# Entry
Amino acid sequence: MSATSTGIPAGTYGFDPVHSTIGFVVVHNGISKFRGSFEKVDGKLEDGVLSGSAEVASVKTAIPQLHGHLQAPDFFDAEQHPTITFHSTEIRPGDGGSVEVVGDLTIRGVTKTVTATGNYGVGVNMMGGDVVGFDLTTTVDRRDFGIDWQAPLPNGNFAVAWDVTIEVHLELAKA
# Structure
């Protein structure tokens, strides 16, 4: 981010869906990274609290046939838990635009405290409006959220790693 870094601004900043993404990365077959994202997401920064959500049914991967399996009870269980949510409890700006965001992540009805790290910036958009951006990552063990489907491989590895990195790229505009 090239925007000026300062403290986290007060006020309400709304989600910009064109310039924001929420996705995940998981090691597949023990050798490569597999990526997915959510197409229906929302979020806001309001008086120093960052919150957001993703509709599970909007999960997208490079394998369209995988969509149904990810909705099933052995993954996200979309019928019982249609939304993934996050609500920050603390935002700690650091030097040079670095940031740590601590908060409660809820997946499949299970809430765990996570710490995401990355960068943030405060600036103005092309219309002169105030904007703030966050590029954050955190890694979770998917078993902590009840996502424990697995397929062992002949070499002893697993088809899908237990650790999943969540990547959040947000641009929010002052309301």
